[in-house]
Amino acid sequence: MGFLDKLSGVGSAISSKSQEAANKAKEMSGVSSLKGKISTAEGSIRVVYAELGEKMFEEKGEWVAENFPELMEKVNELKANIEQYNQEIENLKQATADANAKLQEEEKARKAAAAQVAAEKAAAKAAEAEAAAAAKAAAVEGAAAEVADATVEAVEDAAETVADAVQDVTE
């Protein structure tokens, strides 16, 4: 057997193994696809069973309760749990609403206190401004009084000078 014959045998073995691998991959792909379809069908069956059970319960509730008390007990227990959970949801919502309302009240009180402080500061500034204005007014009044006194004195001096001049002229 020559080298080429051996090489041909190896090539044939590789081709055979490749074909086997391809066939196995095709099988696995088909099996996977069919398993997915089976899983989907089983899920659909569960949905139909659930619908069937609901309809049976709605139409034959008493019969179901008599013949399957443990299942009815479980259903009633689960319904009670759901009711409790719904109540807890409402309690949580109410607690959140109460907490938010309290925060809003506190914020309102903080704003009112800040407004009061601001009003008190403004009143103090107004009082300071009024006192400063009163002091300025007093100073102006004092200066005006001095000017008025000086003016009166100057007018009196001028009047005396005029009176002296008139007396000199008449004498």
Global outline? elongated
The helix-strand sequence is: HH
Mean pLDDT over the residues: 87
Q: Structural class from helices and strands?
A: mainly alpha
Q: What Rg is obtained from the alpha carbons, in whole angstroms?
A: 55 Å
Number of strands: 0
Helix content: over 70%
Q: Work out the strand percent.
A: under 5%
Taking pLDDT < 50 over at least 5 consecutive residues as the criterion, the unreliable ranges are: none
Largest sheet: none
What's the N-to-C terminus distance?
178 Å
Secondary structure tally, helices: 2
SSE blueprint:
Layout lengths: L2 H65 L1 H102 L1
Helix pairs in contact: 1-2
Summarize the structure.
The protein is mostly helical. It has helices spanning about 5-65, 70-170.
Question: Could you describe the 3D structure shown?
Answer:
With 171 residues, the chain is mainly α. It has two helices and no strands. Helices cover 98% and strands 0% of the residues. The radius of gyration is 55 Å and the shape is elongated.
Structure characteristics:
elongated, 0% strand, mainly alpha, 171 residues, 2 helices, single chain
